[in-house]
Design brief:
The protein is of the alpha/beta class and about 750 residues long. Helix content is about 50%, strand content about 15%. Among the domains are: about 50-225, P-loop containing nucleotide triphosphate hydrolases (Rossmann fold, 3-Layer(aba) Sandwich), CATH 3.40.50; about 350-470 and about 720-740, Rossmann fold, CATH 3.40.50. The chain is globular and about 85 Å long. InterPro entries: P-loop_NTPase, Shikimate/glucono_kinase, Shikimate_kinase/TSH1, Thr_synth_N, Thr_synth_N_sf, Thr_synthase-like, TrpB-like_PALP_sf.
């Protein structure tokens, strides 16, 4: 069978493994290894490894006119196997009349029932089956088919289906009542196709049946090759014979473990999947949710997250949680500059774009036999976004997943602090630390690397630690979607044609957002230059210009843009690993040197590679405020301080020969004092709530963020913990939270 009950099977395997463990000094290491073994055994049990001509059927599903019959015949010829067309070979032979006659004779509802019964009485193996367009509307028959085959969804653009049906002179299909437009019924049917497919073939306009058939075979091969898409640490050193070692992980393991055991970050072993020009063009008219599903399906193997389940997660993440239906709209600012608005989520920052989805991925990937404590370091926006995201998982998942977010007590804006503290829920807590974000981030990484402590938590409390910062692959991956979507929106709005280059300018602290744009380019989005915008903590700008990452005698400066008040950019390691041809030995050397000597220098060849794609500069506090003021005076648009940093740098570095998309990473309401100072509003000493309401009265763009206004209405003071800047103190706090939540 292709559909398995995930939890009981894993529990049996895990219990079998755990029963073999002998308690020794390194008992937690053995427990960790047994857990990894359990996941591997479960994965093997979950998917068949039959060849394409084995006893599994290839089941082609899609709307009328998708080409299922034609493509099925081509696949049958290629594989030398039987081809069955449900219309011709099952229904018409069962009924002794044509399908159209049957529909006219019995009507829509009775037709679906009799069609389903005919399919239930049919069985085969090792065949290619072309379904009718209405088969997926009958649950029992689809479950029957899925037991013996792989369901492949031929996803053809709606406009192509409508034109094909006209050419075929088909003016009515099953379920179409009098007066209902064909387009509306086809849209309605998509929910059934999404429910049943195991893998999707995205059929761009103009693709020939032979091309689609080849895509189907590739999709089926990928589906069955469950070990084909693995992850390695950026510090993994490949043996000379290039044999795979235990260091390779599956997507589900990379998400649940967060940080690699050697201190590195997980990255795909292979290159990012690349979409063809035709596939990208077919996404121009798609919604954000549709784009997200297509792109993420290509990056997440269905053995880790089945496509239908992934679709449910994406719907839950972006369906109703965002104030703007476009999720991440692009707004023309002036000239060649466009603003990518990433602040319409529930906490008003770009972190929502990934942290509304990542908790669902995480909850799906973890085994049911362990509890998980998520540790998060935040420079401002991540904390509230993580707490909000994990508060939206199911009640059962909340019982086994908790979150502790550590923030610099005096290093975030007053509003951000109130938002983090106010976002605490039954499974999430905020902890202030009397230090900087860099200390918080380093401390959290250190806790993950402390095998004695993590092993103790596993043995004593059955609790595993993980992360939700952008060091976690499940957090970084969804960010690729909005960079791709922004480009497609420019095409859709007629500002550019597909294939025309754009630059992106991103306020950068931890390097995750700009790295996601790099990955979007690897998937086929024609980004010309990545403009890295820094504030007065411009270590990244200096590095991109010189190749020297130098923290010696460099102190963190608090600025109006606290989310990029960062000196140690964690995700830079992923990009250097990519540029250095996946040289894990070099990454180990460089980042160990950064920890021990507080600087490193990359060789000239790598500097040249970096500067081929990257441009960098920084913005002073005065320039930041001036940009907010001048932009408002010119257009009535209020930039938040981070976006203002990016605009200043874009103005200074971009040559205006192509559009530049400036990432607006937070809503200005979160930084009311800075905005009021920039706009020279005298009532600067008012309470945060008064400042927010005053700004909302300005009738500026973008409009007020309702969720943030609602947050300020909540007057109750929530308690939170404050810790000294001591890793041992943080460990004690983590243990106490685990005791309170899970014991």
């Amino acid at each position: 069978m292709l559909h398995f009950n995930r939890c009981p099977h894993l529990k049996q395997i895990a219990q079998k493994c755990f029963s073999r463990i002998h308690v020794r000094t390194d008992k937690h290491v053995q427990l960790f290894l047994s857990r990894t073994f359990a996941l591997a055994e479960f994965r093997k049990s979950r998917h068949s490894t039959h060849s394409l001509v084995g006893d599994k059927n290839i089941i082609l599903m899609g709307p009328p006119g998708a080409g299922k019959t034609t493509v099925g015949r081509i696949i049958g010829q290629k594989l030398g196997c039987c081809v069955i067309d449900v219309d011709d070979d099952i229904l018409e032979k069962t009924w002794n009349m044509s399908v159209s006659e049957k529909l006219q004779d019995v009507g829509n509802e009775q037709f679906l029932e009799e069609e389903g019964k005919a399919v239930l009485n049919f069985s085969t193996s090792g065949s290619v089956i072309s379904l009718t367009g209405s088969n997926p509307m009958h649950d029992a028959s689809m479950w029957h088919l899925k037991k013996s085959g792989i369901v492949v969804y031929l996803d053809v653009p709606l406009i192509d289906i409508v034109s094909r049906l006209k050419l075929m002179k088909i003016d009515r299909i099953v379920g179409q009542d009098a007066g209902m437009p064909m387009k509306d019924l086809l849209k309605f049917r998509r929910q059934y196709y999404k429910k049943w497919y195991d893998t999707r073939v995205f059929c761009e306009s103009g693709a020939s049946p032979e091309e689609v058939a080849d895509k189907v075979l590739c999709a089926v091969k990928r589906y069955q090759d469950v070990d084909s898409e693995t992850f390695v640490s950026t510090r993994h050193i490949w043996p000379k014979d290039n044999e795979r070692t235990v260091s390779t992980k599956f997507f589900s393991e990379a998400v649940t473990e967060g940080l690699a055991s050697d201190g590195g970050l997980f990255v795909p072993e292979k290159e990012f999947p690349k979409l063809s020009c035709g596939e990208w063009k077919s996404l121009v008219g798609a919604t954000y949710i549709e784009r997200a599903q297509i792109l993420l399906e290509k990056c997440i193997h269905p053995a880790d997250v089945p496509a239908a389940r992934l679709g449910e997660m994406i719907e839950a993440a972006y369906g109703e949680n965002f104030a703007c239906s476009k999720i991440a709209p692009v707004r023309h600012l002036s000239g060649n500059q466009f603003i990518l608005e990433l602040f319409h989520g529930p906490t008003g920052s770009f972190k929502d774009l990934s942290l509304q989805l990542m908790p669902h991925l995480f909850a799906h990937c973890i085994p049911p036999s362990c509890n998980y404590m998520i540790l998060v370091a935040t420079s401002g926006d991540t904390g509230s976004a993580v707490l909000n995201g994990f508060s939206r998982i199911s009640k059962n998942d909340k019982r086994r997943i908790a979150v502790a977010t550590f923030f610099p007590e005096n290093g975030v804006s007053d509003f951000q602090k109130a938002q983090i503290i106010g976002s605490q829920k039954e499974n999430g807590w905020a902890v202030g630390v009397k230090s900087s974000f860099d200390f918080c981030q380093t401390a959290v990484k250190g806790i993950f690397r402390d095998s004695d402590f993590t092993g103790f938590l596993i043995m004593e409390y059955g609790t595993v630690l993980s992360s939700a910062n952008s060091i976690n692959w499940g957090r970084l991956l969804p960010q690729v979607v909005y960079h791709a979507s922004a480009y497609l929106d420019l095409v859709s709005q007629g500002f550019i044609s597909f294939g025309s280059p754009v630059d992106v300018c991103i306020p950068t602290g931890n390097f995750g957002n700009i790295l996601a744009a790099v990955y979007a380019k690897m998937m086929g989005i024609p980004i010309r230059k990545f403009i890295c915008a820094s504030n007065q903590n411009h270590v990244l700008t200096d590095f991109i210009k010189t190749g020297h990452y130098d923290l010696r005698e460099r102190k963190l400066t608090q600025t109006f843009s606290p989310a990029i008040d960062i000196l140690k950019a964690s995700n830079l390691e992923r990009h250097l690993h990519l540029m250095a041809d996946k040289d894990g030995e070099l990454m180990t050397k460089l980042f160990n040197q950064l920890e021990e000597q507080h600087h490193f220098q990359i060789e000239k060849m790598l500097v040249d590679r970096l500067q081929q794609d990257f441009v960098a500069d920084w913005c002073s506090e005065g320039e930041c405020l001036a940009a907010i003021r001048s932009t408002y005076n010119a257009s009535g648009y209020i930039l938040d301080p981070h976006t203002a940093v990016a605009k200043v740098v874009a103005d200074r570095t971009q040559d205006k020969t192509c559009p530049v998309i400036v990432s607006s990473t937070a809503h200005y309401s979160k930084f009311a004092p800075a905005i009021m100072q920039a706009l020279k509003i005298k009532e600067i000493n008012q309470a945060s709530s008064s400042q927010l309401y005053l700004l909302s009265s300005y009738n500026a763009l973008p409009p007020p963020h309702e969720a943030l206004l609602e947050r300020m209405k909540q007057q109750e003071k929530m308690e939170y913990q404050v810790c000294a800047a001591d890793v041992n103190v943080l460990k004690n706090q983590v243990e106490k939270l685990i005791q309170n939540q899970f014991v």
